[in-house]
Hints:
Strand content: 15-25%
Order of helices and strands: EHEHEHEHEH
Amino acid sequence: MNSHKKTLLYVEDDADLRSAVSHHLSDRFKVVEADSIDQAVDIINDLAKIDVLVTDFKLSKIDQRTGLDVASAFRAKFSTAPIVLATGSVLDATQTNFITHGLSGQICKKPFQGSDILEMIDK
């Protein structure tokens, strides 16, 4: 049955949150996890199909890159797949950044439950 599940890439640098949300999403999706922007971009480049992207906004404490960089790489390869951007930041500013990067998708405010992500995917 697992082979019939859609693939979801979940990008989150907080290991505990990533584990909890991935567990919840795994009932419905084959969840591929990444803990960094670089790892996420490598997965995007390596996999032939990813059906959904869920990414944290603030991932890198080293440079200025964000989940928008992951979303841009994802959108370049998977032009119609849903994107959910998770953020603990101010929603208006995050939404403006999302739009100015030419992206569309749902924005989920932290803290959230796995069921919140599923609702966003279904919109």
